[in-house]
Fold this sequence. Notes:
Layout: H1 2-41, H2 45-103, H3 109-124, E1 126-135, E2 140-147, E3 157-158, H4 162-170, E4 174-175, E5 192-198, E6 201-211, H5 220-261
Antiparallel strand pairs: 1-2, 1-6, 2-3, 4-5, 5-6
Helix pairs in contact: 1-2, 2-3, 2-5, 3-5
Amino acid sequence: xxxxxxxxxxFKKGEEFTKSLLKENERLRYRIAQxxxxxxxxxxxxxxxxxxxxxxxxxxxxxxxxxxxxxxxxENKNFAQRYIxxxxENNNLANLYVASYxxxxxxxxxxxxxxxxxxxxxxxxxxxxxxxxxxEKTNELVPEAAEGINIDEIPRIHLGEGIIxxxxxxxxxxxxxSLLHPEEIDPYNPLVCIPLKIKEHxxxxxxxxxxxxxxxxxxxVDYELFNLLAGHAATAxxxxxxxxxxxxxxxxxxSFLDLxxxxxxx
Length: 266
């Protein structure tokens, strides 16, 4: 926000300088008009020559001012563009903060998955995608949730198998060369595949098959958002799974203890 204010301040100074240039330009034009009128009324050659020299000097000054005006106008455009970029970055960071807060606001596993789906839709702009989690018993990626595509159409994938399996095994994101929307979705060939990592431990992947129609390319901010979101989502999913499993075990143990406390029937 401090950077944005500094750019806005510079932008306003440029605007004030531009106004002063326009005012000086008007004054010079009025002066030239006066001199031209004086030349028409004067028959003295010496005075005419003097006026011509003054007009030439004024015209040189006017050309110089016009050139400076164009430079200032170009600088203003650059400042305005940079201000828009800074504002966009601030908005994305604010959105990410809200998203991370939502992810860590609950330990309910199903609620966390629901929040992850909402973030992928609203923050990233994905249209068809899936969240896949690694089954540690079989070393397979299992679809946990999907949007825009039937979850039954998404196959279980072994680690190292194809694009998705390789991302899960190596922990490196995959981005297709083009974001052109395919006519038919190939569940094995996504446009983007992001590993859900806690440090170097991969627990699953986010698989994106298509984006909203207005999404035509990725910006540098998009890549940062992908990485940050994957880390926060992985932590939230992992924590909620552990909590849910511990709750189930605790409930089972409590039920067993309650059963032992019951008086035996005669």
